[in-house]
Structures are given as C-alpha cells and as structure tokens.
Amino acid sequence: MTVPPQATEPHTETTEPNGHWPLPDLAARALGGAVLTANDESFAEKEHLIRPYPVLHQSATFGHRGQLYDGWETRRRREPGHDWAIVRLGAPGRVGGIVVDTAYFTGNYPPEVSVDACRLDGHPSLTDLEAADWHTLVPRSTAKGDSRNAYDVDFPGRVTHVRLNLHPDGGVARLRVHGTPVPDPDGFADLPLDLAALVNGGSILGASNAFYSNPVGAITPGLATSQADGWETARRREPGHEWLDIGLAGRGVVRVAELDTTHLKHNAPGWASIEAFDGDETFTLLPRTALVPDTPHRFVLDNDRPAVSVRLNIFPDGGMARVRLYGRLTAAALAGMRERFEAR
C-alpha cells in the first residue's frame, strides 16, 4: 500500500484559489528567500514582498513618504519603461504558479504585471543577475487592485531567481512563487541529511486535518517561532487519530526521527508513531511512543530498509512544530536527483 496523495484545505493565508496550496512558496523568507534589488522603492520597501504573514493595513496613516503600505510601491512613472524587483528563491526549483497580491492597493496598483526567471546556481552578484538569460514565467498579464492575482506557470526548468515587473508602476503587497524544490545533489553524496526537509525535496502529500495551520510548516527550516509555525489539527471529537503524509526527497533509509512539539504546551499529541512506505510494502519506523509537550524528541531508529514516503500518526490529535527524518538516499535516488538538477 502506498500513501495516498490526498490533502485537506489548510486554514491559512497561503491557500490559493487555483489549488496551489500544496506547492510551497519557494521565495519564502523562512526558506532563505530575499528581495535582492529593485529599480525603485520610493513609497514602500521591496522587502515587504516576501513577508510571511497576511498583509497589514491602517488607512490614513502617513509617514514622510506618504500612506504607509505593507508592500512594495514605486513612484508614478513619467517616462517610458516599467518598474521591477528581483527575488532570490530560498528553495530553487520548478515553478507551478505565481500569486501577485495587491491587497489594499486600490488606486495605485499596476494594471499589468509579468514575471521572468533565471537560473544562476551558487551565489551570483547583482551584475551577474543583470546579465543573466531571463525566461518568461508569466507573460504581461492583467492585474486587479486589492486582489490576489494568481497565474499558472508552465516552465520545465529549475529556477533560482525571479523578476517581478510592474507595467508601468504601482504597488504590490506580496509575491508568492509556488513550486517544487529541486535541490543540488552534491550535498547528498556523503552526508546524512533530513530527507523530509522541504529544501531537500521533501513534500507534504496529505493530512487528515489542517485546521489551524498549513502542514508545510512542519518541514520548513529552522526552529518554530510559535505554535502557529508548524502543523496543528482541530480537536478530534470522534474515534481515531490524525496523520500527516510526507514524501521523502527520494528513496532512502531513515535512521533518526525528530518530532518537535516546541511551543505546543497544552495541545501536543499524547503519542506518535511513524509508518514507512516503499511501493506496495509498509513497515514501522517508530512504534506508538509517548510524547511530551513543548519538547524536541529524537529517536534513533533500528532501520535499514529504504522508503519513499512516511505517515506520521498522532494520537489522538494536536500539533507538531517540526518533523525531521535523517538518513541517506539510495544510489538510484541520488542519480535521479542529479538528473532533475541538471535538466534545463
């Protein structure tokens, strides 16, 4: 039996009307994303574009630049051309959808936008980026004010940077670049790594319940900052238990599991177990084990069998700040990762 790729609607700001929520935001600051440069930020700073939380706004609040906006806003353009900002993706990969959110920009939003992308591995300079070979992800398209403008993307290559273009000028609150991470396999060759990590190619395949938070948070980098930064279910009122399905970066052997309940003081699960899946085979990685609130748990696993995905079961409900599954990819999986990385 393989893990079914079923997913529930999360109760979060990242839910998209075109179904992109299972694809993480590759530009997220939590993954290492950054707004590197912009040609103009006269009214509001470019860094606001990748803030993780919902847009904040208070009307008739003015600073020395004018109305304060939680977003990026350029001056009124009086000459030919357009405004732009370049964003480095925190997790380079294949892009499936773009969201340009113009929340609270009503008389000053760009009537049209476009998005370009390039691939420059390593740590390119701004000069390198200016000379890069840029490709179109979103052609020049109509945008609405005070709206979440969602655009599907059909581009097969690995992307490291995107350029948001405003035609001709205006303000954008948030930019979301939804896609699938494609990691550099060189980091997997000799070291055991977290095979569940989003930045390494792990993914959320499904969740029985995601009422309070997007389960993608459970496999993001770093420590949780609050109980909302992870996966948390509603209170279960019927028999059974909740679960989270995680696709590994590739077929690999998991030797250490970390289940972190940090910040979950009164809503941590009482117990947890982990099942592993490899084709039609199912086996236990971690038997049902008691958990403690607000605590990182590390379990050394007696396992030498490879798997492609796991199911974390929590009993009966609750939350998990982070899930880490340390191990090594098989030689075939590593070769497949290299093939995806080198594809152009």
Automatic annotation (TrEMBL):
Tell me which HAMAP family the record gives: Allantoicase
* EC top class, as a word: hydrolase
Q: Give the record's GO biological process terms.
A: allantoin catabolic process; purine nucleobase metabolic process
Keywords (alphabetical) are: Hydrolase, Purine metabolism
Lineage: superkingdom: Bacteria
Query: Know the name of this protein?
Result: Probable allantoicase
Q: What is its EC number?
A: 3.5.3.4
